Amino acid sequence: MQFIKEIYSYRTMISSLVRKDLKGRYKGSLLGFLWTFINPLLQLAVYTFVFKVILKNPTPNYYLHLFVALVPWIFFSSALTTGSKAISGQANMIKKIYFPREVLPISYATSSFINMLLSFIVIFAVCLFSPVGLSPVPLLVLPFVMIIQYALVTGVTLITSSLTVYLRDLEHIMSVLNMVLMYLSPVVYPVSYIPEKYYAIYMLNPMSSLIIAYRDILYEGIVPQLQTLLIAFAESVAVLLAGLLIFGKLKKGFAEEL
Amino acid sequence: MAAIEVNEVRKSFKVYFDKGRTMKEKILFQHRNRFEERKILDGISFSVEKGEAVGLVGHNGCGKSTLLKLLTRIIYPDSGTIKVEGRVSSLLELGAGFHPDMTGRENIYTNASIFGLTKKEIDARINEIIEFSELENFIDNPVRTYSSGMYTRLAFSVAINVDADVLLVDEILAVGDAAFQAKCLEKMLDIKAKGTTIAIVSHSLSQIEQICNRSIWIDGGKIRMDGSPNEVHTKYLEYMGQKRLAKSVTVEKKSGEPAKNSGSPENKNIGESGEISEKIAEITGVQLIGEDGNISGKYRSGERVTLKISYRANPEKLNGVLIGLLFFRNDKLTCYGTNTMRERIENIALKESGEILCEIDKLNLVRGSYWIDVAIRAKDMFAYDYVAKAVEFTVYSSVDEVGVVKLEHKWTFN
Fold first, then answer.
1. Is residue B250 part of a domain?
2. Which residues does A contribute to its contact with B (CB < 8 Å)?
């Protein structure tokens, strides 16, 4: 309770860090903020070419099937890659001044979250012009799914950023883990491809149920099953709590380790 | 109610000889992870009441800055507990999170938000902050265009206007010019009067004496003395003086040169600014002598003192002579400066060697630490010799005055 109150009192710091991050992210680049949209579109083009044209994936409207999963995935993967530097990249501030250390990963996750929300503008545009269209009722569930994922990403960022302070190798391990997890989540293929006997284990990955939910809403145009949402919620909250716990244990040594 | 409570706090740092950071190094070269435990704080307990102002003194490396870092919660103790009630503002590192490309105003918002202020709270203070920084005309320029003085002034203004319940200060009042320093001091006294608890680490004992009503002397990670600044600082200076004396004696023995000066620890005779020209005139020793030949380096406020400058000179090459004196307080505030030309004393004749005496009837400085710079110059101001900190001394007083100079006065009540 005390903790939540303290984080809340630092909300202005969080919002100013988020603003700084979003402004600074593409600073100096020619296309600037447009990269928020270009980057996922380029990845979409590559994956569509590989899996649709070369590997001949039979899923109808494959590009959309992929796109609605790819954007949430990029949000998640930011927690693993750049998010792991949320603390070690701010050594100066950590060593010199007090503030609740959680503020850094939280603002990192928040700016990635806003980035994803902006990318959703493109998703909506693509959906509208595709044969699939947009179904209004399932869309009402979308904010809940996003918030669940926001909790998950915050949790993962708390874990990766605090561990990286003590073990610098993690920065490199993360990029491998990032690739492994991507293929262990239903990003480039439909979840129905997973053999029955591995299904239970497969669903332990919180991104599995989240991507299923995103895809139900945007690609299938149906309301996700309650069970899918419950699994996503339970797993994400568990990760968030674990993140807070691990971070809380490790944060006391940050200033000395950095 | 105690605002700060420190209970049996211990802290040591691991000093690695060659620390492995990557996994490979951690696993393969375990022997490299050898380290030495260096005890910084060794069981410190004290508590500070709400509204109290405490100074932490001690020589370099005694652990006072570490203690302050523990109080800010940048680092945590190995054992023991620390409780600090309320919002803490620290003047440890000024300008945390300053971004050079953002304007002064934007940086105020970022910096203040790091102290836990909300937008609304910053809005309410922004005018006060800008006014205090005296940067009204530059506040909407990017911070990278600021001079370093402007930069620290802005940062200081933010930190001091946070309205904290507890204010922690580390060697910070050396910000800006003398006028701004005086303003900072005034602000600190103001803040103290409002009931803010203050803890200050400083080498400037006079600063602590002006602000604090209590002083804690830390030595070797333990509390050596805790009491009124007057008592603690007298003991502390005595101790430091003895230490310095011990050191200077060994140096003199080593170099084998005859001591040019008396053995007084406070009276140095070699200038820190060193040689300026081939010595047409040279200051060979400076002494401040109090009543009854007191050369202890401690003088009563109002004591009759004589400044004795010993010199060597080449009378034929001298192009007129003037003698200059500058009195500084140890925070670099100029207290008094004069020279013989300003006082229209002409035709000073120096011999090949001799002494110049300057008698000061009353050393009317308020208590604190001071030093004197002494110069011998040609009449065109060319410095034959300039000795910075030729004499360092402290002034004590039974009266708790503030400021710099003691104005002689009488009270009458009709």
1. no
2. 6, 9-13, 15-16, 20, 92-99, 167-169, 252-253, 255-256
pLDDT, tens digit, for every residue of B69-89? 898 888 899 888 999 888 888
B405 in a structural domain: no
**By residue range, what is the domain housing residue B149?**
2-235
Token pair of B377, please?
């110059």
> Which residue range forms the structural domain that includes residue A97?
2-257
CB A20 within 8 Å of CB A89: no
pLDDT at A16 > cutoff 70: yes
Residue with more model confidence, B256 or A165: A165
CATH of the domain at B194: 3.40.50.300
A61-75, A143-157, B107-121, B279-293 — most confident range: A143-157
Whether B226 and B97 map to the same domain: the answer is: yes
Of B23, B24, B118, which is closest to A11 when you measure between CB atoms? B118
pLDDT greater at residue A148 or residue B248: A148
Distances (CA, A) of A215 to A62, A128, A189, A223: 12, 15, 11, 10
Q: Is residue B256 part of a domain?
A: no
Q: Which of B213, B235, B257 is the last residue of a domain?
A: B235
Residues B146 and B104 in one domain: yes
Picking from B72, B97, B118, the nearest residue to A12 by CB comes out as B118
pLDDT at B342 over 90: no
CB contact under 8 A, A93 and B118: no
Within a domain: B122: yes
Q: Which residues contact B127 (CB under 8 A, 6 or more apart)?
A: none
> N- to C-terminal Cα distance for chain B?
43
Number of domains chain B contains: 2
Give residue B29's pLDDT.
64
Q: Do B156 and B28 share a domain, yes or no?
A: yes
Highest mean pLDDT among A10-14, A27-31, A244-248, B148-152: A244-248
pLDDT over 70 (residue A118): yes
User: Chain A: residue nearest B122 by CA?
Assistant: A12
Which residue do the tokens 């600014």 mark?
B273
Chain A positions in Cβ-Cβ contact with residue B69 (cut-off 8 Å): 255
Same structural domain, B184 and B274: no
Cα–Cα distances in angstroms (integers) from residue B17 to residues B35, B63, B302, in the given order: 6, 21, 54
| pLDDT(B320) > 70 | yes
